[in-house]
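Dear Dr. H.,

I hope your travels went smoothly. While you were away I took the liberty of generating a structure for the chain from your last submission, since the lab meeting agenda had it listed for discussion. I wanted you to have the full record in hand beforehand rather than looking at slides cold. The sequence, exactly as received, is reproduced here:
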Amino acid sequence: MQVQQLMIVWSFKLLLAGAQDRTITYLFTRTCAVEGSTVLLPCSFTPLKSFIIDGINVPLKIIRVRWCRNHPVCQGDTPSVFDSDSLDVDPQFQYLGDMEGKCTLQISNIQLKDEATYRFRMEANDSAGHFTNPTGVMVQVEGNPVMRVTGSNNSEVREGQAVSLQCSTSPCSFHRVNISWFRDDHALPEAGPTLHLGPLTAKDSGNYSCALGTRTQSRSDPFSLQVEADSEGETSHRILGVAVAVLVVVIALAALMLFLVIKRRRSAVSRSAEQRHRGDVVLPSGPNGEAQRTDQNVEDVSYAAVHFKQKKPSRELQPHADDVVYSAVVTRG
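The corresponding predicted structure, in token form, is as follows:
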């Protein structure tokens, strides 16, 4: 009898220990969403793998998952926004989890009537594996939130710069909500939470505002953007600076070209003089005292002077110098 009681006590302790292993975790327990937006409720769970009864280890398997609204336990015939056993699926509520550990719920186009506390429940092939986290996630829905426009730069910018305008609201999420933009109460073709402008011109100046879709009652207060044009003095200085820079470049190029031309001409003159020096050869003076010039390709000729004297002159010699006879000797190289 005592042995049986001990077995019951130990089985109950093991059951409690196994129950402690069952967990459902919500990433946050409260959130806020703008009406018409899409909301994610991140969730994860750890199921009980097995339990012991009468000394036997009984394995468990999750066979059903549910999300309920405003019910502390989410069991029995409690209405569910999602039930894996139901064929009637509401497309507004999409289960992004599985049967093993993920239990995220997505709510699309959330409305004011959807404001509630949502809880997840898992059910196994034995009631020992059933579990609901009663904490749940409280979802608050904002119908007409106050929108606000902020700029990446100051409200005063210069032409040529770029700026980004951000449309935001209170901590409420407005994921997948169409954001409309206006300038001076005129609708702009751009849409989305961020408006990119640039390069800016004077015509981009104006009062910018944003709103949730076509709901004009949610339009933000205007954000004044003033695009300042460059002053005439700054423009003149810039033009003068560019002109001076261009003039310096042109002068430098002209000087370089002149230097190259002079260098080329000097080189040509030097080569021409050298060729003439090599091509002409100056010979000794001829009979008339004139220098003779011949080309290097002609045979080289050398002249020699020969003196003849008579021992017994037959006639009176002229008082001039000895007669000179020139003989040409041809030398062949």
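Two observations you may find useful: DSSP finds two helices and 25 strands in the chain. The CA atoms of residues 181 and 210 lie 5 Å apart.

With kind regards,
E. W.
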